[in-house]
Amino acid sequence: MEEKILPVERLELVDLDIYADKEAHIENLRKDIAENGLKTKIKVKKNEETGGYYVTQGYSRVKACIKLGITEIPCIIEGTVDGKETEAVIKGNKCEVE
What we know:
The protein is of the alpha/beta class. It has helices at about 20-35, 60-65, 85-95, and strands at about 1-5, 10, 40-45, 55, 70-80.
């Protein structure tokens, strides 16, 4: 695993729609990050097809950072993913939260 500060425009987000009130959740995170900073790094996988970074953990934190105008986010790069693997990663993320 590699740690790297990445620009938000290189992060690829897939909305898993797992929170009953997603906007309230993101707003609470925005307030917390504004007061205390981003405590937990975002986990990503390098997307071999696009050159971007697919967010595997931290969708809501990224959205909150964007609302705060944060342009670079500390990330942990956990390998790579291609188009075929992306769907499996999305399904895995949904299962972890449910």
